[in-house]
From TrEMBL:
InterPro entries: ATPase_NBD, MreB, MreB_MamK-like. This is Cell shape-determining protein MreB. One of its GO terms (molecular function) is ATP binding. Keywords: ATP-binding, Cell shape, Cytoplasm, Nucleotide-binding. It holds the Pfam family MreB_Mbl. Forms polymers. The gene is mreB. ATP binds at G154, G155, T156, E202, E203, I204, K205. GO terms for biological process: cell morphogenesis; regulation of cell shape. One of its GO terms (cellular component) is cytoplasm. Its main location: cytoplasm. Forms membrane-associated dynamic filaments that are essential for cell shape determination. Acts by regulating cell wall synthesis and cell elongation, and thus cell shape. A feedback loop between cell geometry and MreB localization may maintain elongated cell shape by targeting cell wall growth to regions of negative cell wall curvature. It comes from Caldilineaceae bacterium SB0662_bin_9. Belongs to the FtsA/MreB family. It is found in: Cytoplasm.
């Protein structure tokens, strides 16, 4: 097959690329470094510059809460990722399926579609993230049964019930991994008078972050800048403190999932009690998150097999089965 079929999870924090017949071929941070009018680095290389760049180089995340905040930068980033797969001058332009948050406006959908077309796609389609996540997680979304998925992204958390290749009910909150990182940084600033960057906050979350208090408290040494005298300083942070720090974003996420369950038709709700709730996205890997959600919702929750890749896999599979999926996808008038 000469024309490539590409599924893209265009996330606030990471971009994942799926190619038909090859699987996931790329996973890079959604970060771009720009000097003047020129893009000097994309992905991991640009991410390493975050918070460490001179004034001559701007390091930007072109997506905010799952939608395009900077069109030109997003287009340049998409072009880079598509060319990594197809080469600079492909004989046939690829067909591309890109995930977007369910609650986006038609203007935001048009922006993603136009960016993909200008980045070199021959045809571009959009798929709601929860639908792609459910498909990629291997749920039987084509059957008349209730399949519930919660996608924990960097900018948004979306929960949805899927049946017959479409979303029945859904809820979304613009709280995700980034908001949890911010909560940790704010806690450290208020309690220890210590300023830390977003990378340090993310490292704390990954190292000792937990949705529930752990049986054995662990700690980590953190380094930052003293808020009072401006000098470098270190402090020790316990996992119980991180659990306390992220309580507000956790409550917002739980309320969103509860809202979806409350809107679910009774027949589908009974299916969800039997099957449970599948958690996808990078944020689903937070320690004891399934246990906390199970406790609060009264429904068994478990993490999908490859949670980070579910949306990209689902986008790729939806493109392969486009004729079946097309009625469930947003229509973009060109």
């Amino acid at each position: 097959m000469l024309q490539k079929h590409i599924g893209i999870d265009l996330g606030t924090v990471n971009v994942l690329v799926h190619v038909q017949g090859k699987g996931i071929v790329m996973q890079e941070p959604s970060v771009v470094a720009i000097a003047g009018q020129h893009m000097v680095a994309v992905g991991h290389e640009a991410f390493d510059m975050l918070g460490r760049n001179p004034d001559s180089i701007q390091v930007e995340r072109p997506l905010l809460n799952g939608v395009i905040a900077k069109f030109d930068v997003t287009e340049a980033m998409l072009r880079y990722f598509i060319q990594q797969v197809t080469g600079k001058r492909p004989l046939f332009k690829p067909r591309v399926m890109i995930s977007t948050p369910k609650g986006v406006t038609s203007v935001e959908e048009h922006a993603v579609h136009d960016a993909a077309m200008q980045a070199g796609a021959g045809a571009a389609y959009l798929i709601p993230e929860p639908l792609a996540a459910a498909y990629g997680a291997g749920l039987p979304i084509g059957t008349p049964t209730g399949n519930m998925v919660v996608d924990f992204g960097g900018g948004t958390t979306e929960s949805a019930v899927v049946s017959m290749y479409d979303i029945v009910v859904w809820s979304s909150v613009r709280t995700g991994g980034n908001r949890i990182d911010e909560a940790i940084a704010n806690y450290v600033r208020k309690k220890y008078n210590l300023l830390i960057g977003e990378q340090t906050a993310e490292e704390i979350k990954i190292s000792i972050g937990s949705a529930l208090p752990q049986e054995y408290d662990t700690s980590i040494e953190i380094r930052g800048r003293d808020q009072v005298n401006g000098l470098p300083r270190s402090a020790t942070l316990a996992s119980s403190e991180v659990t306390e720090a992220i309580e507000d974003p956790m409550q917002a996420i739980i309320s969103t999932i509860r809202s979806t369950l409350e809107k679910t038709p009774p027949e589908l709700a009974s299916d969800i009690i039997d099957r449970g709730v599948v958690l996808t996205g990078g944020g689903s890997q937070l320690r004891y998150l399934p246990e906390r959600l199970t406790r609060h919702l009264g429904v068994p929750c478990y993490v999908a097999e490859n949670p980070m890749a579910c949306v990209a896999l689902g986008a790729g599979q939806a493109l392969e089965n486009y004729q079946i999926m097309r009625r469930s996808l947003p229509e973009i008038e060109v």
